Automatic annotation (TrEMBL):
This is Aminotransferase class V-fold PLP-dependent enzyme. Keywords: Aminotransferase, Decarboxylase, Lyase, Pyridoxal phosphate, Transferase. GO terms for biological process: amino acid metabolic process; carboxylic acid metabolic process. One of its GO terms (cellular component) is cytoplasm. Gene3D superfamilies: Aspartate Aminotransferase, domain 1, dopa decarboxylase, N-terminal domain, Type I PLP-dependent aspartate aminotransferase-like (Major domain). Its cofactor is pyridoxal 5'-phosphate. The keyword Secreted does not apply. Belongs to the group II decarboxylase family. It comes from Auraticoccus cholistanensis. The modification N6-(pyridoxal phosphate)lysine is found at residue 307.
Amino acid sequence: MSAEQFRTEAHKVIDWIADYWATVGERPVLSTVEPGSVAEAVDGPIPDDPEPLEQVLSDVDRLLVPGLTHWQHPRFFAYFPANSSPAAVLGDLLSSGIGAQGMLWATSPSVSELEQVVLDQLARALGLSEAFCHRREDGSPGAGGGVIQDTASTATFTALLAALHRATGGRARTEGVESGRYTVYASSQAHSSLQKAAMMSGLGERAVRTIDVDAWTQQLDVAALAEALKADVAAGRVPVMVQACVGTTGTGAVDPVTEMGALAHRHGAWLHVDAAWAGVAALCPEHAWVNAGVAEHADSYVTNPHKWLLTTFDCSSFWVRDRSALVGALSILPEYLRNPASESGAVVDYRDWHPQLGRRFRAVKLWTVLRSYGLSGLRAHLRAGVAQAARVTGLVDADPRFTPAAPPCLGLVAFRLAADASGARLPDAEADRLTAALMTAVNTSGEAYLSHTQLSGRTVLRWAVGGWQTTAADVERTWQVLSDAADELLGHAAATPG
Ligand SMILES: *Cc1c(COP(=O)(O)O)cnc(C)c1O
Protein backbone atom coordinates (compact mmCIF):
# COMPACT_ATOMS: atom_id res chain seq x y z
CA MET A 1 0.00 0.00 0.00
CA SER A 2 1.48 3.32 -1.00
CA ALA A 3 1.26 6.37 1.26
CA GLU A 4 -1.41 7.82 -1.05
CA GLN A 5 -3.42 4.59 -0.98
CA PHE A 6 -3.14 4.51 2.81
CA ARG A 7 -4.52 8.05 3.01
CA THR A 8 -7.54 7.07 0.92
CA GLU A 9 -8.18 3.78 2.70
CA ALA A 10 -7.81 5.37 6.14
CA HIS A 11 -10.53 7.87 5.28
CA LYS A 12 -12.88 4.99 4.49
CA VAL A 13 -12.33 3.53 7.95
CA ILE A 14 -12.85 6.89 9.65
CA ASP A 15 -16.02 7.32 7.58
CA TRP A 16 -17.18 3.90 8.70
CA ILE A 17 -16.61 4.81 12.37
CA ALA A 18 -18.33 8.20 12.00
CA ASP A 19 -21.36 6.55 10.39
CA TYR A 20 -21.38 3.82 13.04
CA TRP A 21 -21.42 6.36 15.86
CA ALA A 22 -24.08 8.45 14.12
CA THR A 23 -26.44 5.48 13.74
CA VAL A 24 -25.53 3.20 16.64
CA GLY A 25 -28.52 4.49 18.63
CA GLU A 26 -30.88 3.03 16.04
CA ARG A 27 -29.52 -0.49 16.46
CA PRO A 28 -30.54 -3.07 19.07
CA VAL A 29 -28.08 -2.51 21.96
CA LEU A 30 -27.64 -6.16 22.86
CA SER A 31 -26.65 -8.71 20.24
CA THR A 32 -28.92 -11.75 20.26
CA VAL A 33 -26.98 -14.02 17.89
CA GLU A 34 -26.72 -17.72 18.75
CA PRO A 35 -23.36 -19.06 20.00
CA GLY A 36 -21.18 -20.13 17.08
CA SER A 37 -23.11 -18.26 14.41
CA VAL A 38 -20.50 -15.51 13.91
CA ALA A 39 -17.68 -18.06 13.68
CA GLU A 40 -19.64 -20.04 11.12
CA ALA A 41 -20.30 -16.93 9.03
CA VAL A 42 -16.69 -15.72 8.93
CA ASP A 43 -14.89 -19.07 8.86
CA GLY A 44 -12.77 -20.08 5.88
CA PRO A 45 -9.16 -20.06 4.75
CA ILE A 46 -6.97 -16.95 4.70
CA PRO A 47 -7.28 -15.60 1.13
CA ASP A 48 -4.35 -16.31 -1.17
CA ASP A 49 -4.74 -12.98 -2.93
CA PRO A 50 -5.10 -9.51 -1.41
CA GLU A 51 -8.66 -8.31 -0.98
CA PRO A 52 -9.79 -4.68 -1.19
CA LEU A 53 -10.66 -2.85 2.01
CA GLU A 54 -14.24 -2.36 0.75
CA GLN A 55 -14.71 -6.09 0.92
CA VAL A 56 -13.42 -6.20 4.49
CA LEU A 57 -15.68 -3.32 5.54
CA SER A 58 -18.68 -4.84 3.85
CA ASP A 59 -18.06 -8.10 5.74
CA VAL A 60 -17.76 -6.14 8.98
CA ASP A 61 -21.25 -4.78 8.32
CA ARG A 62 -22.69 -8.05 7.09
CA LEU A 63 -21.02 -10.64 9.33
CA LEU A 64 -19.73 -8.88 12.45
CA VAL A 65 -22.13 -6.04 13.26
CA PRO A 66 -25.05 -8.41 14.00
CA GLY A 67 -22.82 -10.10 16.61
CA LEU A 68 -21.85 -6.82 18.28
CA THR A 69 -23.29 -5.60 21.52
CA HIS A 70 -22.98 -1.85 21.10
CA TRP A 71 -21.00 -0.45 24.01
CA GLN A 72 -21.08 3.05 22.52
CA HIS A 73 -24.89 2.93 22.18
CA PRO A 74 -26.52 5.85 24.03
CA ARG A 75 -28.76 3.39 25.91
CA PHE A 76 -26.02 0.98 26.96
CA PHE A 77 -26.49 1.02 30.75
CA ALA A 78 -25.02 -2.39 31.69
CA TYR A 79 -21.85 -3.14 33.72
CA PHE A 80 -19.96 0.16 33.56
CA PRO A 81 -19.51 2.46 30.58
CA ALA A 82 -16.46 1.78 28.39
CA ASN A 83 -16.26 5.16 26.71
CA SER A 84 -14.70 5.53 23.34
CA SER A 85 -14.52 9.08 21.94
CA PRO A 86 -13.28 10.84 18.82
CA ALA A 87 -10.12 12.10 20.53
CA ALA A 88 -9.33 8.66 21.96
CA VAL A 89 -9.67 6.98 18.58
CA LEU A 90 -7.37 9.56 17.00
CA GLY A 91 -4.85 9.20 19.83
CA ASP A 92 -5.00 5.41 19.50
CA LEU A 93 -4.36 5.76 15.76
CA LEU A 94 -1.26 7.80 16.50
CA SER A 95 -0.07 5.09 18.86
CA SER A 96 -0.67 2.40 16.22
CA GLY A 97 0.93 4.41 13.48
CA ILE A 98 4.01 5.22 15.52
CA GLY A 99 4.12 1.55 16.46
CA ALA A 100 6.82 2.00 19.08
CA GLN A 101 7.73 -0.57 21.71
CA GLY A 102 8.17 1.19 25.03
CA MET A 103 9.64 -1.65 27.07
CA LEU A 104 12.73 0.40 27.97
CA TRP A 105 13.30 4.11 28.10
CA ALA A 106 16.02 3.55 25.50
CA THR A 107 13.64 1.84 23.04
CA SER A 108 11.70 5.13 22.64
CA PRO A 109 12.30 7.85 25.23
CA SER A 110 9.09 9.73 24.41
CA VAL A 111 6.95 6.70 25.22
CA SER A 112 8.25 6.52 28.80
CA GLU A 113 8.62 10.22 29.49
CA LEU A 114 5.20 11.24 28.18
CA GLU A 115 3.61 8.48 30.28
CA GLN A 116 5.36 9.75 33.41
CA VAL A 117 4.27 13.32 32.80
CA VAL A 118 0.66 12.46 31.90
CA LEU A 119 0.29 10.29 34.99
CA ASP A 120 1.80 13.00 37.20
CA GLN A 121 -0.71 15.47 35.76
CA LEU A 122 -3.58 13.06 36.30
CA ALA A 123 -2.46 12.19 39.85
CA ARG A 124 -2.57 15.88 40.75
CA ALA A 125 -5.92 16.43 39.06
CA LEU A 126 -7.39 13.47 40.96
CA GLY A 127 -6.05 14.73 44.29
CA LEU A 128 -3.79 11.72 44.91
CA SER A 129 -0.93 13.89 46.23
CA GLU A 130 2.67 14.49 45.23
CA ALA A 131 3.65 11.17 46.84
CA PHE A 132 2.42 9.35 43.73
CA CYS A 133 4.28 11.52 41.23
CA HIS A 134 7.47 10.72 39.33
CA ARG A 135 8.55 14.32 39.62
CA ARG A 136 7.58 16.57 42.49
CA GLU A 137 6.31 20.06 41.85
CA ASP A 138 9.76 21.49 42.71
CA GLY A 139 11.29 19.26 40.00
CA SER A 140 12.96 16.78 42.36
CA PRO A 141 12.45 13.04 41.74
CA GLY A 142 9.68 11.37 43.73
CA ALA A 143 9.73 7.92 45.32
CA GLY A 144 6.46 6.93 43.68
CA GLY A 145 5.01 7.13 40.23
CA GLY A 146 2.36 6.03 37.79
CA VAL A 147 2.14 3.57 34.94
CA ILE A 148 -0.54 2.75 32.38
CA GLN A 149 -1.62 -0.87 32.66
CA ASP A 150 -3.92 -2.69 30.27
CA THR A 151 -6.59 -3.18 32.92
CA ALA A 152 -7.38 -2.66 36.59
CA SER A 153 -7.05 -6.42 37.00
CA THR A 154 -3.38 -6.22 36.02
CA ALA A 155 -2.91 -3.18 38.26
CA THR A 156 -4.31 -5.04 41.25
CA PHE A 157 -2.17 -8.09 40.44
CA THR A 158 0.98 -5.96 40.36
CA ALA A 159 -0.08 -4.17 43.58
CA LEU A 160 -0.28 -7.56 45.26
CA LEU A 161 3.13 -8.59 43.91
CA ALA A 162 4.64 -5.35 45.24
CA ALA A 163 2.96 -5.84 48.62
CA LEU A 164 4.22 -9.41 48.78
CA HIS A 165 7.71 -8.31 47.83
CA ARG A 166 7.70 -5.86 50.72
CA ALA A 167 6.13 -8.28 53.21
CA THR A 168 8.62 -11.07 52.43
CA GLY A 169 11.68 -8.83 52.25
CA GLY A 170 12.10 -9.91 48.63
CA ARG A 171 11.87 -13.66 49.25
CA ALA A 172 8.63 -14.01 47.27
CA ARG A 173 10.51 -13.51 44.01
CA THR A 174 13.39 -15.82 44.85
CA GLU A 175 11.92 -18.60 47.01
CA GLY A 176 8.20 -18.27 46.32
CA VAL A 177 5.73 -18.19 49.20
CA GLU A 178 4.87 -20.60 52.00
CA SER A 179 1.37 -21.97 51.72
CA GLY A 180 -1.16 -20.46 54.14
CA ARG A 181 1.18 -17.87 55.65
CA TYR A 182 0.15 -14.67 53.85
CA THR A 183 -3.29 -13.08 53.84
CA VAL A 184 -5.22 -10.46 51.85
CA TYR A 185 -8.38 -8.53 52.86
CA ALA A 186 -11.26 -6.94 51.01
CA SER A 187 -15.01 -6.66 51.31
CA SER A 188 -17.50 -9.15 49.93
CA GLN A 189 -18.20 -6.53 47.25
CA ALA A 190 -14.59 -6.38 46.00
CA HIS A 191 -14.01 -7.09 42.34
CA SER A 192 -13.17 -10.68 41.39
CA SER A 193 -9.80 -9.49 40.03
CA LEU A 194 -8.47 -9.57 43.60
CA GLN A 195 -9.20 -13.27 43.90
CA LYS A 196 -7.61 -13.83 40.52
CA ALA A 197 -4.53 -11.88 41.64
CA ALA A 198 -4.25 -14.13 44.71
CA MET A 199 -4.51 -17.19 42.47
CA MET A 200 -1.86 -15.90 40.05
CA SER A 201 0.54 -14.70 42.76
CA GLY A 202 0.79 -18.18 44.25
CA LEU A 203 -0.92 -17.12 47.48
CA GLY A 204 -4.02 -19.03 46.45
CA GLU A 205 -7.57 -17.76 46.60
CA ARG A 206 -7.96 -19.00 50.18
CA ALA A 207 -5.55 -16.26 51.24
CA VAL A 208 -8.31 -13.72 50.53
CA ARG A 209 -10.37 -12.84 53.60
CA THR A 210 -13.86 -11.70 52.64
CA ILE A 211 -15.00 -8.98 55.02
CA ASP A 212 -18.69 -8.25 55.61
CA VAL A 213 -20.34 -5.05 54.43
CA ASP A 214 -23.12 -2.92 55.81
CA ALA A 215 -26.39 -4.36 54.43
CA TRP A 216 -27.59 -0.98 53.14
CA THR A 217 -24.48 1.07 52.23
CA GLN A 218 -22.46 -1.96 51.06
CA GLN A 219 -19.35 -0.38 52.61
CA LEU A 220 -16.78 -2.60 54.29
CA ASP A 221 -17.34 -3.11 58.02
CA VAL A 222 -14.17 -1.75 59.65
CA ALA A 223 -14.73 -3.63 62.93
CA ALA A 224 -14.97 -6.91 61.02
CA LEU A 225 -11.72 -6.07 59.20
CA ALA A 226 -10.00 -5.33 62.50
CA GLU A 227 -11.14 -8.67 63.89
CA ALA A 228 -10.02 -10.62 60.84
CA LEU A 229 -6.57 -9.00 60.96
CA LYS A 230 -6.25 -9.69 64.66
CA ALA A 231 -7.24 -13.33 64.29
CA ASP A 232 -4.76 -13.94 61.49
CA VAL A 233 -1.90 -12.25 63.31
CA ALA A 234 -2.69 -14.24 66.47
CA ALA A 235 -2.49 -17.42 64.38
CA GLY A 236 0.97 -16.44 63.11
CA ARG A 237 -0.11 -15.35 59.65
CA VAL A 238 1.16 -12.23 57.88
CA PRO A 239 -1.33 -9.70 56.46
CA VAL A 240 0.09 -8.62 53.09
CA MET A 241 -2.52 -6.35 51.57
CA VAL A 242 -5.81 -4.68 52.38
CA GLN A 243 -7.86 -3.56 49.40
CA ALA A 244 -10.35 -0.73 49.67
CA CYS A 245 -12.98 -0.31 46.96
CA VAL A 246 -13.86 3.17 45.79
CA GLY A 247 -16.99 2.44 43.77
CA THR A 248 -17.82 -1.25 44.07
CA THR A 249 -18.94 -3.05 40.94
CA GLY A 250 -22.29 -3.99 42.44
CA THR A 251 -23.57 -0.66 43.74
CA GLY A 252 -20.72 1.88 43.63
CA ALA A 253 -20.12 1.77 47.39
CA VAL A 254 -17.07 3.65 48.64
CA ASP A 255 -15.17 1.91 51.45
CA PRO A 256 -13.81 3.88 54.45
CA VAL A 257 -10.30 4.29 53.02
CA THR A 258 -8.89 6.27 55.95
CA GLU A 259 -9.89 3.75 58.63
CA MET A 260 -8.80 0.83 56.45
CA GLY A 261 -5.44 2.46 55.79
CA ALA A 262 -4.81 3.01 59.49
CA LEU A 263 -5.64 -0.64 60.22
CA ALA A 264 -3.57 -1.98 57.34
CA HIS A 265 -0.51 0.00 58.35
CA ARG A 266 -0.85 -0.97 62.01
CA HIS A 267 -0.34 -4.55 60.81
CA GLY A 268 2.36 -3.74 58.27
CA ALA A 269 0.05 -4.44 55.33
CA TRP A 270 -0.12 -2.58 52.01
CA LEU A 271 -3.25 -0.54 51.25
CA HIS A 272 -4.39 -0.87 47.64
CA VAL A 273 -7.32 1.26 46.48
CA ASP A 274 -9.42 -0.07 43.60
CA ALA A 275 -11.23 2.92 42.12
CA ALA A 276 -11.45 1.41 38.64
CA TRP A 277 -14.74 3.05 37.70
CA ALA A 278 -15.41 5.83 40.23
CA GLY A 279 -11.97 7.35 40.75
CA VAL A 280 -12.03 9.60 37.69
CA ALA A 281 -15.07 11.43 39.09
CA ALA A 282 -12.63 13.23 41.41
CA LEU A 283 -11.72 15.49 38.49
CA CYS A 284 -14.88 17.38 39.54
CA PRO A 285 -14.32 19.27 42.81
CA GLU A 286 -17.78 18.26 44.06
CA HIS A 287 -16.87 14.56 43.64
CA ALA A 288 -13.30 14.81 44.98
CA TRP A 289 -14.55 13.12 48.18
CA VAL A 290 -14.37 9.73 46.43
CA ASN A 291 -10.57 9.81 46.74
CA ALA A 292 -10.53 11.00 50.36
CA GLY A 293 -7.83 9.24 52.36
CA VAL A 294 -5.87 8.09 49.31
CA ALA A 295 -3.27 10.85 49.55
CA GLU A 296 -2.55 10.02 53.20
CA HIS A 297 -2.98 6.25 53.32
CA ALA A 298 -2.83 4.40 50.01
CA ASP A 299 0.25 2.48 48.92
CA SER A 300 -1.24 2.02 45.48
CA TYR A 301 -4.27 3.24 43.56
CA VAL A 302 -5.92 2.36 40.27
CA THR A 303 -8.57 4.06 38.15
CA ASN A 304 -9.54 3.33 34.54
CA PRO A 305 -9.74 6.18 32.02
CA HIS A 306 -11.09 3.39 29.77
CA LYS A 307 -14.32 3.26 31.72
CA TRP A 308 -15.85 6.70 32.26
CA LEU A 309 -13.09 9.04 31.01
CA LEU A 310 -13.58 8.97 27.25
CA THR A 311 -10.44 6.88 26.59
CA THR A 312 -11.04 3.88 24.34
CA PHE A 313 -10.12 0.57 25.94
CA ASP A 314 -7.47 -0.15 27.07
CA CYS A 315 -6.03 2.40 29.49
CA SER A 316 -5.82 1.79 33.23
CA SER A 317 -3.84 4.28 35.29
CA PHE A 318 -2.02 2.85 38.30
CA TRP A 319 0.13 4.60 40.88
CA VAL A 320 2.42 3.46 43.68
CA ARG A 321 3.77 5.46 46.58
CA ASP A 322 7.01 3.44 46.73
CA ARG A 323 8.11 2.36 43.30
CA SER A 324 11.00 0.32 44.70
CA ALA A 325 8.58 -2.32 45.99
CA LEU A 326 6.99 -2.72 42.55
CA VAL A 327 10.23 -2.63 40.60
CA GLY A 328 11.83 -4.88 43.20
CA ALA A 329 9.14 -7.47 42.60
CA LEU A 330 9.26 -7.35 38.81
CA SER A 331 12.67 -6.17 37.55
CA ILE A 332 14.76 -8.52 35.54
CA LEU A 333 17.69 -7.65 33.31
CA PRO A 334 18.78 -10.10 30.65
CA GLU A 335 21.98 -9.22 28.81
CA TYR A 336 20.20 -8.29 25.58
CA LEU A 337 18.28 -5.48 27.34
CA ARG A 338 21.34 -3.90 29.01
CA ASN A 339 21.91 -0.27 28.01
CA PRO A 340 23.70 2.78 29.44
CA ALA A 341 20.51 4.75 30.17
CA SER A 342 19.06 1.94 32.32
CA GLU A 343 22.36 1.48 34.07
CA SER A 344 22.59 5.16 34.91
CA GLY A 345 19.38 4.85 36.97
CA ALA A 346 18.20 8.17 35.58
CA VAL A 347 15.29 6.76 33.55
CA VAL A 348 12.12 4.73 34.03
CA ASP A 349 12.06 1.38 32.26
CA TYR A 350 8.41 0.44 32.32
CA ARG A 351 9.06 -3.24 31.61
CA ASP A 352 9.80 -3.41 35.36
CA TRP A 353 6.32 -2.14 36.24
CA HIS A 354 4.13 -4.95 34.87
CA PRO A 355 4.12 -8.64 33.96
CA GLN A 356 4.79 -8.25 30.22
CA LEU A 357 7.91 -6.92 28.56
CA GLY A 358 6.55 -5.15 25.47
CA ARG A 359 4.16 -2.24 25.74
CA ARG A 360 2.48 0.17 23.40
CA PHE A 361 2.22 3.93 23.45
CA ARG A 362 -1.06 4.27 25.38
CA ALA A 363 0.11 7.55 26.90
CA VAL A 364 -0.32 9.34 23.57
CA LYS A 365 -3.97 8.26 23.53
CA LEU A 366 -4.61 9.51 27.07
CA TRP A 367 -2.68 12.72 26.39
CA THR A 368 -4.76 13.36 23.25
CA VAL A 369 -7.95 12.87 25.29
CA LEU A 370 -6.85 15.13 28.16
CA ARG A 371 -5.79 17.91 25.79
CA SER A 372 -8.69 17.62 23.35
CA TYR A 373 -11.39 17.90 26.01
CA GLY A 374 -9.52 19.74 28.75
CA LEU A 375 -10.60 19.51 32.37
CA SER A 376 -13.73 21.51 31.53
CA GLY A 377 -14.81 19.05 28.84
CA LEU A 378 -14.07 16.00 30.96
CA ARG A 379 -15.95 17.49 33.90
CA ALA A 380 -18.94 18.30 31.70
CA HIS A 381 -19.04 14.66 30.58
CA LEU A 382 -18.81 13.30 34.14
CA ARG A 383 -21.41 15.77 35.38
CA ALA A 384 -23.85 14.83 32.62
CA GLY A 385 -23.64 11.19 33.75
CA VAL A 386 -24.18 12.08 37.39
CA ALA A 387 -27.16 14.30 36.51
CA GLN A 388 -28.73 11.59 34.35
CA ALA A 389 -28.27 9.04 37.16
CA ALA A 390 -29.95 11.46 39.57
CA ARG A 391 -32.92 11.50 37.21
CA VAL A 392 -32.99 7.66 37.28
CA THR A 393 -32.97 7.79 41.09
CA GLY A 394 -35.84 10.28 41.01
CA LEU A 395 -37.89 8.02 38.74
CA VAL A 396 -37.22 4.95 40.93
CA ASP A 397 -38.14 6.85 44.10
CA ALA A 398 -41.37 8.19 42.60
CA ASP A 399 -42.65 4.80 41.41
CA PRO A 400 -44.22 2.64 44.15
CA ARG A 401 -43.29 -0.57 42.29
CA PHE A 402 -39.54 0.05 42.56
CA THR A 403 -37.22 0.14 45.57
CA PRO A 404 -33.61 1.32 45.71
CA ALA A 405 -31.33 -1.58 46.69
CA ALA A 406 -28.43 0.57 47.92
CA PRO A 407 -27.59 4.28 48.03
CA PRO A 408 -27.03 5.53 44.45
CA CYS A 409 -23.44 6.59 43.74
CA LEU A 410 -22.40 9.00 40.99
CA GLY A 411 -23.60 7.38 37.76
CA LEU A 412 -24.82 4.06 39.18
CA VAL A 413 -28.30 3.24 40.47
CA ALA A 414 -29.17 -0.18 41.95
CA PHE A 415 -32.85 -1.01 42.40
CA ARG A 416 -35.42 -3.77 42.18
CA LEU A 417 -39.03 -4.40 41.35
CA ALA A 418 -40.46 -5.09 44.80
CA ALA A 419 -44.15 -4.13 44.85
CA ASP A 420 -47.26 -4.20 42.71
CA ALA A 421 -48.81 -1.10 41.17
CA SER A 422 -50.62 -0.25 44.42
CA GLY A 423 -47.34 -0.39 46.31
CA ALA A 424 -48.16 -3.68 48.08
CA ARG A 425 -44.90 -5.50 48.75
CA LEU A 426 -44.27 -8.72 46.83
CA PRO A 427 -42.76 -11.79 48.50
CA ASP A 428 -38.95 -11.68 48.07
CA ALA A 429 -38.75 -14.71 45.78
CA GLU A 430 -41.50 -13.31 43.56
CA ALA A 431 -39.77 -9.93 43.45
CA ASP A 432 -36.50 -11.66 42.44
CA ARG A 433 -38.25 -13.52 39.64
CA LEU A 434 -40.00 -10.40 38.34
CA THR A 435 -36.85 -8.25 38.59
CA ALA A 436 -34.91 -10.77 36.50
CA ALA A 437 -37.80 -11.04 34.01
CA LEU A 438 -37.91 -7.26 33.77
CA MET A 439 -34.24 -7.10 32.86
CA THR A 440 -34.71 -9.76 30.21
CA ALA A 441 -37.69 -7.89 28.77
CA VAL A 442 -35.75 -4.60 28.53
CA ASN A 443 -32.62 -6.22 27.13
CA THR A 444 -34.36 -8.35 24.50
CA SER A 445 -36.38 -5.31 23.37
CA GLY A 446 -33.13 -3.97 21.90
CA GLU A 447 -34.02 -0.53 23.27
CA ALA A 448 -31.61 -0.52 26.20
CA TYR A 449 -29.24 -2.75 28.09
CA LEU A 450 -29.11 -3.11 31.90
CA SER A 451 -27.23 -5.67 33.99
CA HIS A 452 -27.86 -7.19 37.40
CA THR A 453 -26.23 -8.31 40.61
CA GLN A 454 -27.20 -10.07 43.83
CA LEU A 455 -27.24 -8.25 47.18
CA SER A 456 -27.86 -10.32 50.32
CA GLY A 457 -29.29 -13.03 48.07
CA ARG A 458 -31.75 -10.68 46.34
CA THR A 459 -31.75 -9.92 42.61
CA VAL A 460 -30.98 -6.30 41.82
CA LEU A 461 -30.85 -4.28 38.58
CA ARG A 462 -27.89 -2.01 37.88
CA TRP A 463 -28.42 1.08 35.73
CA ALA A 464 -24.96 2.51 34.98
CA VAL A 465 -25.06 5.89 33.25
CA GLY A 466 -22.03 7.55 31.65
CA GLY A 467 -22.08 6.93 27.90
CA TRP A 468 -20.64 9.82 25.89
CA GLN A 469 -23.60 9.82 23.51
CA THR A 470 -26.26 9.37 26.22
CA THR A 471 -28.75 12.21 26.58
CA ALA A 472 -31.55 12.95 29.04
CA ALA A 473 -33.97 11.72 26.36
CA ASP A 474 -32.27 8.30 26.37
CA VAL A 475 -32.89 8.00 30.10
CA GLU A 476 -36.59 8.91 29.68
CA ARG A 477 -37.01 6.50 26.78
CA THR A 478 -35.41 3.65 28.72
CA TRP A 479 -37.56 4.36 31.75
CA GLN A 480 -40.67 4.15 29.55
CA VAL A 481 -39.59 0.74 28.23
CA LEU A 482 -38.85 -0.44 31.77
CA SER A 483 -42.12 0.89 33.16
CA ASP A 484 -44.22 -0.66 30.37
CA ALA A 485 -42.46 -4.00 30.81
CA ALA A 486 -43.14 -3.84 34.56
CA ASP A 487 -46.84 -3.15 33.86
CA GLU A 488 -47.01 -6.17 31.65
CA LEU A 489 -45.17 -8.47 34.08
CA LEU A 490 -47.23 -7.34 37.08
CA GLY A 491 -50.46 -7.63 35.10
CA HIS A 492 -49.48 -11.12 34.10
CA ALA A 493 -48.48 -12.04 37.65
CA ALA A 494 -51.84 -10.76 38.99
CA ALA A 495 -53.77 -12.77 36.37
CA THR A 496 -51.97 -16.00 37.26
CA PRO A 497 -51.62 -16.05 41.06
CA GLY A 498 -49.34 -18.71 42.50
C1 LIG B 1 -14.26 -2.72 36.15
C2 LIG B 1 -13.65 -2.97 37.47
C3 LIG B 1 -12.50 -3.75 37.59
C4 LIG B 1 -11.88 -4.48 36.45
O1 LIG B 1 -11.48 -3.64 35.45
P1 LIG B 1 -10.60 -4.15 34.23
O2 LIG B 1 -9.88 -2.92 33.82
O3 LIG B 1 -11.55 -4.67 33.22
O4 LIG B 1 -9.69 -5.22 34.72
C5 LIG B 1 -11.93 -3.87 38.85
N1 LIG B 1 -12.47 -3.26 39.91
C6 LIG B 1 -13.58 -2.51 39.82
C7 LIG B 1 -14.12 -1.85 41.06
C8 LIG B 1 -14.21 -2.34 38.61
O5 LIG B 1 -15.30 -1.58 38.51
